[in-house]
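PROTEIN–LIGAND DATA SHEET

This sheet pairs a single protein chain with one bound small molecule, adenosine-5'-diphosphate, given as SMILES. Inputs appear in the order they were entered. The predicted three-dimensional arrangement of chain and ligand is reported afterwards as a token string under its own label.
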Amino acid sequence: MSAGSALELADIQYRIGAARILTDVSLRIAPGEIVCLIGPNGAGKTTLMNVITGTVQPQSGSITWQGRDVTRHGPHHRSRLGLGRTFQTSYLFDQLTLLENVALGAGGPHASGFRGLLGIGANARHLREQAGESLEMVGLGAKAHQRVSSLSHAERRKVEIAISLVSGADMVLLDEPMAGVSAEDVPDLVELIQRLATPTTSVMLVEHHMDVVLQLAHRLVVLHHGEVLAEGHPDDVMNNREVQTAYMGEEL
Ligand SMILES: Nc1ncnc2c1ncn2[C@@H]1O[C@H](COP(=O)(O)OP(=O)(O)O)[C@@H](O)[C@H]1O
Ligand SMILES: [Mg+2]
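PREDICTION REPORTED AS:
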């Protein structure tokens, strides 16, 4: 690993049949950095998050996390190593409480999550404690025992963030965290995401709202047709002619 990188992707290639979904993608994220991944619809942003978290295996290239080659590690293993994530579409259980949802997410259905939820197994109490702390961290400690069905969109997004944090994440990947969130709740979520980034925890987010991107991003990475078109300081990237052309006809 190069000095200062938490995550390093080198020459990632991912194809589905003849379609090149990601081509030669290389990037680094430093500890504590907030990187926004932007690009037109279909550019490959969600796929890139899947590659980083291990739900998709690239045909070639490597993924190094905290100095360790995790290219062949599965998603649960990577999550245990501190790579947390949220998904573009909501995946919470409406009829369960916030605490139950987060406890389930902590172990994952293949690990101790269900046992923890049912209160069996030696680590059930530990799991619930961790889930409670994670909910406190996103400001929902007081609602831990309410059902998820009673929450606003913004609160649901916060529960999803709590799940991504619960196994002790050193990096969180957020796929369109503002989707479905009403305008008046956006500043609160922006503040939460800022708070997630600490000297040791990095954040990578996919976001379409440019005002949000510009408030949060230390650095922008622009994907276009599965390739990194530009990266760097937000001001420089936004003024890049190629980026402006790529976005023609789309809201930037
Ligand atoms: N499972 C799949 N099968 C076929 N094509 C896919 C699959 N997943 C993604 N793609 C294609 O890969 C490209 C990138 O998709 P995606 O990563 O979802 O883009 P983004 O998140 O930037 O909108 C799109 O052209 C999409 O149609
Ligand atoms: Mg997407």
